[in-house]
Amino acid sequence: MLWPTPDQLNATLAQAIGNLSTLDPKTCQWPDLNYSTRGPENWDPVLHMFRISTMTAALTVPGGRENDTVLLWAVHCALRVWIEQDWQNPNWWWNYIQDPLIATGIMLMLGVERMSSEEINAIITMSYRANWWIKDWGGGANLVWELQVQLYRGLATSNYSAVAQGFEVMWNTVQIQNLSTWGVQTDWSYHFHGPQILTGAYGDAWATNILHFHLATRGTQYALSQDRIDIFGRFLTEGDAWFTMGSVWTWGILGRVIDRGVHVWYTHLFPSDQLRALAMDVSSAYTAFALLDYADRLEHRHEARPLVGNRHFYTSDFQVHRRGNWTAALKMHSFRTIATECDNNENLNGEHIGDGVLNLYTRDAQYGSGEEYENIFALLDWKTINGITVEADTPLVRCNRGKLAMLNTTFVGGVSDGHYGTAIMDTAAHNLMAKRTWHFYDDFIIALANGIEDNTTALLQTTVASRLLPPADTAAVCIVIVYTIAGKFLFALLEKHREKLNCQEAYSKHMTEVTKVTPKLLAYIQYNVTSAILIFSTKKDNTKVADVIIGSMLYNYRVFVISTGSKYRHYEIVSKDMETSNMLHMLCYDCKDGPNTGAKLIFRAVYKLFGLANLAMCVDLIHEEIKAKFRWLNHKIGIIEGEKDLVVTKKDKALDNNKRPSTTDCNPVMNTNDKMIENENEARKLMPNNNIAHTHPIKINSNKETLHQRAAATKGKLLFKSAICR
Asked: What is the predicted pLDDT for the residue at 526?
């Protein structure tokens, strides 16, 4: 506020003496200041007023330099120059808020009895520039600053009606505002300049003033009401405290003031002793303890209770996740919110500040000083700030009249149960679109991206971390994941590589299992079906015996087939649908008078135990005669084995019923040219050595349709496959 606290007194006195020693007694100006500057933010002439204020505080504070006539002369000399020059800035804020605030503060500290009428009238005139009754400031910091001017003027001139009015209007800002009004929101975030979260900027200034004036008016007729005290306490503990790491703000809620250097980084405007005093005034014990803990953390006291949990600030598209030794802060934006601004030539590179920026604090996150990002902003590549996905080579959009052109989406938000949380954001920037999610847990964060689209050949990149290495003044590190639109997101590429390895491992084990069972199965099948003479031998097994023997041989293989689905989720062994099984049942079980009855009973046993797909795998590895028989079966049920003919075509479906083979006639065989083959030896000639319909090749990057896709597009048609990588 105006006068220094006891612990600030010595520093204030030293600064005042320093200002006095450097003041030019002839011009009453300071030679080190450039009075011609007109910068919207860094404006030297205002430092002239700040130095007068410091000298006035040293002159009037108890224990200061009350009787220092030289210091008093210097105050009047420098003040006269300011009144004569009345320096103005193109930025209205200096002229309407900051200058009147400093001037009325000087008048209040010095006292009108020690001032000339010229000085008093000039300051009163200047103070009316802060005309809050004309502007509609809502519940924002600008209103409180202008009310502060009125309070100083009223107190200095003993205009107590002005004082009463000032406090009444000021206290009205201590309430939960609707979304269209600047100030405290329903989720305890703070909006300013529209639906923009600025808790650590304008919100900091507002809360600091409310805290100071509440403590100053306790026990007076101007005191803050109890219900508003409780609202303010909850705002600090359920809002501000969540955005604070030790004694610093997370920089996602600072807005454009990140351009101003390290002094805006700290929450030093919240004196911990004042938070403890507020804790004595709130009616909720829970809020009181939370205020005490907050004060302790601001003082870096490690014995303080840490703030742990998850909170989604839904009006601001912001989520904070806190654990005992680390904190994450996620900043998003949507059509409902404003990500940032670039007024006064500040924050000119902030285009991506709201594009899913995920700031991670791991160095004493509960009690520290935020060294990961301290003064980092001049070092950052603003296309590689934490967590964003962008086109690497696309230039940043420049500021246009205080605004940054951003693409807003509607599907942005999050949920939280108070301990864990999830956030979702449809991201849009330039030509890039992506669907992104973040999932916050006890020891880790899962960040996912899907549906990444870009209609250019731009190089895309996602930044995992961009922060200072310890110690804080050494260097900045940036970890970036780069990917191209042609290859898709790198995470997707890694997943596909993992799928390929998954398939290869499963395929290797699959072949091992098949190799184990093949010799016995091959010998048995050859013994029973490959020789016409042996088929009619009385020593051959009948259907019932064959079922039992083959089932025994393939039991272990069956166990492997069943377990494969859970162990290797990218490797499938697919069974046939009911229609095919019914047809196979008719062809292989009910054709009692057809040829090769012995072969049919073997197929029956294998199919019954494993299904058509596994029957195909077994047949793939045995004698050519058996392959020919299987092909004959496939043609009979309408399954064509060529890669282009995995499904029955409409042409096949349209065959005249008179020409279609009977389901009780097992002799004819249909080839890919729709010619009838009466002999299975001819079918054997058409049979390729490597039947691609049986074993789908393990090719991850193939542009051809997968069997899954073909199956989905051919409802009611017959197809089969054995083992594939999906």
From this structure: 63
